[in-house]
Inverse folding.
């Protein structure tokens, strides 16, 4: 039986899929990678997306045929089953075909990913928080330039391709969260909150140029050759250079927060943190990314298993059942 001929298809947005559910719906293939099983057989490792989010998917059969057919970034009608794999939902795809002209239930507007929260409100909150806490005229001007040039992309960008905040609006959520925590902690240690806020705002903004998420998920040339730490630094310098008499020492301290935020050279930091503000920003960056890994893992689990598989970033398995 041709699975696509099964009686009537219903809207199956990724967010509402449950383990065990049969899928017969349209998704954008955001990423496709040919891999080998332990036995040496080929399989396809994919990521599918729609306006409600993303989900991993696999193709185990007819690998050669589907590898030829599927182009990353295109939308296909996919038939298969949602399974629980390593404590996360994924689709085992059994049939894939291109969208046909008579697919009357297909709506191309369903494939522009929308942040899973009110990202415009959060963007405004982020800039209000900056406005309420910055007193230095050069920094106020810097934020104006930033808002104009990078506000829209910050609102939409992923926080990463994988691992943490890997969804539309994720970068904004992460940036805002690091800012709020920095504000809460700065007074305890007498730290410079303005330096921390600007560092938080700029530290990952290079991610908006490091990779693309539409139509396919792809590292850009600049992203692959420079990485977001250096791109963030360049963005800061470009905007800063538009401001006459930007204090040189302040500029260097901000640059230091940006370049050291990964904490260690082996994690891509050109320099390790050498000021308390840089050290705090590094820790808050790490804290926020790790807490997001927990929350995303818990969200995607259906509660069937007690523990996730080994999580590389956390170095352990995660308890999946809340109570
Ligand atoms: Fe980063
Ligand atoms: Fe970050």
């Amino acid at each position: 039986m041709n699975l696509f001929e099964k009686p009537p298809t219903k809207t199956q947005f990724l967010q509402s899929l449950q383990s065990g559910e049969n899928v017969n719906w349209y998704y954008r293939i955001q990423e496709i990678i040919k891999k080998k099983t332990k036995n040496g057989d080929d399989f396809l490792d994919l990521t599918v997306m729609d306006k409600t989010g993303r989900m991993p998917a696999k193709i185990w059969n007819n690998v050669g045929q589907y590898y030829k057919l599927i182009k990353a970034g295109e939308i296909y009608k996919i038939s298969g089953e949602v399974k629980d794999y390593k404590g996360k939902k994924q689709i085992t795809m059994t049939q894939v075909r291109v969208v046909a002209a008579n697919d009357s239930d297909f709506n191309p507007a369903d494939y522009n990913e929308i942040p899973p929260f009110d990202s415009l409100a959060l963007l405004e909150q982020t800039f209000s928080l900056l406005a309420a806490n910055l007193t230095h005229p050069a920094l106020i001007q810097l934020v104006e330039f930033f808002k104009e040039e990078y506000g829209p992309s910050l609102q939409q960008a992923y926080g990463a391709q994988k691992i943490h905040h890997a969804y539309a609006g994720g970068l904004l959520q992460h940036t805002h969260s690091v800012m709020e925590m920095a504000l809460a902690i700065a007074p305890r240690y007498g730290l410079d909150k303005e330096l921390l806020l600007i560092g938080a705002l700029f530290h990952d903004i290079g991610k908006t140029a490091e990779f693309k998420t539409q139509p396919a998920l792809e590292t850009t040339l600049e992203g692959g050759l420079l990485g977001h730490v250096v791109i963030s630094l360049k963005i800061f310098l470009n905007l800063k250079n538009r401001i006459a008499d930007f204090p040189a020492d302040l500029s260097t301290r901000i640059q230091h927060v940006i370049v050291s935020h990964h904490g260690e050279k082996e994690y891509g930091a050109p320099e390790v943190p050498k000021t308390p503000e840089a050290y705090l920003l590094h820790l808050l960056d790490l804290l926020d990314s790790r807490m997001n890994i927990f929350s995303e893992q818990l969200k995607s689990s259906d509660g069937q298993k007690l523990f996730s598989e080994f999580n590389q970033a956390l170095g352990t398995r995660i308890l999946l059942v809340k109570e």
User: Anything to note?
Assistant: The domain at 119-298 is CATH 1.10.3210 (Hypothetical protein af1432). The chain has two domains: 3-111, 119-298. Residues 174, 203-204, 285 surround fe (ii) ion (ligand 2) (CB under 6 Å).
